[in-house]
Write a structure and sequence with these properties.
Layout lengths: L1 H5 L2 H29 L10 H33 L3
Helix pairs in contact: 2-3
């Protein structure tokens, strides 16, 4: 859709990467929230501390590799392979 509007393949590759990341990490984040909310104790509540912990865990698990992948590798593949 971005390519149809802008005719810019580089922008389309980066927007595709952003869409892919939102779907993939959104799913993981929602799954982690659901698992965190399962009551292990009677007074277990999901709060800001739990939210920050979930974000921290995702960044620790995927952070450095995902930065390289999102900024260089995946957009390059989305740009060059269709050519």
């Amino acid at each position: 859709m971005i390519y149809l509007i802008t005719k810019n393949k580089i922008l389309a590759a980066y927007m595709g990467t952003i869409g892919d990341n939102l779907g993939y990490y959104g799913f993981i984040f929602v799954r982690d929230i659901i698992q965190s909310r399962k009551p292990q104790k009677q007074n277990c509540q999901y709060n800001l501390k739990s939210f920050i912990k979930n974000i921290r865990n995702i960044v620790i698990e995927f952070g450095p590799a995902e930065i390289i992948d999102s900024l260089l590798i995946r957009p390059a593949c989305m740009y060059f392979f269709p050519l």
